Amino acid sequence: MDKSALHVISLVSVGAHPTSGRPRRAEQDARAVELGLQLAGDNLHVLHAGDAEEPALRGYLGMGVDELHVLAQPPGADALPGLADYIRESGVQLVLTGSQAETGEGSGMLPYLLAEKLGWPLVVGMAEVESMSNGTAQVLQALPRGQRRRLKVRLPFLATVDNSAPKPRQSAYGPAQRGLLDVEEIDVVIDEVFAGAELTPAKPRPKRLKVIKAKSGADRMKAATAKASGGGGQVLKGVTAQEGAAAILKLLVEEGVVR
Amino acid sequence: MSDIIRRDPRAEWIARNRLHPLHAAMQPAQTRWMGPNGVLRKNVHGIGFIGPNGVKRIDRSGAQQGGAIKRSVSVDVQLPLHRIATPAFYIAVVPDMVGGRLSSHDRDLLGLAHGLAGNEGAVLAVIFGEHKETAFDTAGVDRLLILEGSAFSGYSPEQRVQGLRAVDNQFDPHHWLLPDSRNGGGELGRRFAASLGERPSTRVWQVAGEQCVGRAGAGTADLSRPVSRLILAQAECAEPVSETRHEALPVELSTAVARSLPRIEDLGAVAVDPALIPMSEAEFIFSGGNGVKDWPLFHRTAVALGATEGASRVAVDDGFMGRDRQVGASGTWVTARVYVAVGISGAIQHLQGIGACDKVVAINLDPTCDMIKRADLSVIGESAAILEALIEAVDTYRNGAKRDAA
Question: N or C: which end of chain B has fewer CB within 10 A?
Fold first, then answer.
């Protein structure tokens, strides 16, 4: 892959520390920057829509990015139109984002809406870019349970990264302070729906109770004392090892775990 | 067999007739006899029968004949049927169907949909491709729509959105419910929302009246808002349906689904080193215990199957496996879909650890152990021979598949 020919934008936001709530670089966005640096090196473009004065933004500059582009917006403004216009004019092949913001609503809708607005394909949970050639890219998508799926996608495309993307490098203080912030003023579109919503501290969710709907005392006693529920399984006794193995393999293939 | 206790006049007649050839068989089992040393012996287990509620009953009136009559204890309760003849509106649910079956998350969602549908609306489940589920009726599905076709197979989010749009046009559901999970529901729901241009309620964990509560930000805040048309709900958002049976009537789309040119091509799953997958989230665990004598063979089988290795406490204590591989109450609580236990008798601590597993396969010498009672498939026999045969069977299966492809 030719690093100089590839242009990548990583979208970043301001995160919040899970315990203290202090502003920090967002975990998944930092992974998006890390992946962008590995793919494009100096050609990585880091973009933020929001308050340019936020000191936590410099955390991304400390990862080895010379310049951070900021579309200045007040809090509560809709980032989507500004970002879409900027990306459309930039002519990049790949846009990387985290999958969900750490502050605000955090619905994770932005990449989907952006892809819909730009008309680009969207890869969810990208873990690795294997190759790029002839206007297509071959990427690995992270699935639950540590699995991976190989996808072939047409350029340009949008990709979200989650916790299976490479770990972000540490942010260095000196480069973070020396880095440049390129601020651009854009039209402000207020997000009407979210403006009225109210965020409250998260309530602990109630634990689900195990309700026993037994009609008789004997059923209740059985439910309270029952050990392993038996009887449902198939027991193969007195069969040869080959027959037993064939039965096990049949089940494993049916369940799709042996391919 | 019916659970109603009936008199059998013929059996009574034979029991009275000492000359009848079947007379001996119809006598009650001997419960007391004089032992050789002049001590009276009693067999207390032979007395009585199991009554209709699963309780042992002893009839001392003398009316009982024959040996212990086994009556089936489990009574299949037929739940009342919830019938919606002409639905006033639909609540559409798109379950994840991990492994082709409804997950507990899907069932919670169907419970939520049943609550939203009330007595007039119908719950419409939209399934893509093939499935293995047999219990749609008790899960709360009133109408079942299966979108078949090669276009929906594999990873095809864009085509599935087209399918959902066609369903939306025809049925116009009041609400769309999707699981906010990493198994595809969260992604499909958001794609569908972006395509419809509707704002979904995401990460919802409670729906109460006209308001729903969802997590916001990094999970440290709650957002309460009016219920939107599209709901992406978390697990345990509602109680699953348990008191009614539903029709699960198949319905069909009247129009063909628009074909979208796939911009993302699925090249299939990639082989991942199973040893690197954390055990708590591994999908397929091959676990060994005290009954495994040949550990190199065990490791070879795990590699052949492509499974993550696990172990019982005994195997870890004896030093055959690392402590991080221990399954059970003092080790890892696993969530595997398929769990193969080799030579594990199934201590209660171990069974707790595999409580979330879907399918359990046991290979054991002892047919009475607790693991066999838990397992869906058990093979009684010497583990070494079965593992050798299993490696061979997997090799032939894979080679056969290769020959078919060539």
Answer: C
